[in-house]
Amino acid sequence: MVFNFEQVHNYYERLVFEEVARRAEEFPAFTLDMLGDVACVALNRLPARYVRHDVDMMFYLTEHERHAIELALEEALQFAFGFVLERASKTAR
């Protein structure tokens, strides 16, 4: 039997990557490496939610769960941008 796990992914990855790319304009001094670090820090602060299809997960979530995901995502991204910015300023000294 051959297994195909290519569709399996962490639900938060796409959300984090898109938000980091969208917010990158607010941080013009961030390099591509720094933005990658932001994505990693944010993802490490979020729970792993593995799915095959994003739409399946969204279909089964309640409005309360969707709101909780949005809040967790925002908190993780704010922390991650601040964390990377702080680390970068310490190494620049």
Which helices and strands appear, and what pairs or packs with what?
Layout: E1 9-10, H1 11-23, H2 32-45, E2 50-51, H3 54-60, H4 63-91
Antiparallel strand pairs: 1-2
Helix pairs in contact: 1-2, 2-4
Descriptive key words:
two-stranded antiparallel sheet; 93 residues; 2 strands; mainly alpha
Model description:
With 93 residues, the protein is mostly helical. It has one domain. Helices cover 68% and strands 4% of the residues. The chain is built from four helices and two strands; from the N terminus they run E-H-H-E-H-H. It has a two-stranded antiparallel ribbon with strand order 1-2. The model has no long low-confidence stretch (mean pLDDT 93).
Structural class: mainly alpha
Work out the oligomeric state of the chains in this entry: single chain
Let me know the average pLDDT: 93
Fraction in beta strands: under 5%
Number of strands: 2
Q: What is the distance, rounded to the nearest whole angstrom, between the alpha carbons of the first and last residues?
A: 56 Å
How many distinct domains? Answer: 1
Specify the number of helices: 4
Low-confidence stretches: none
Instruction: Give me the side-by-side strand order of the main sheet.
Output: 1-2
Structural Rg: 15 Å
- Order of SSEs: EHHEHH
Anisotropy-based shape: globular
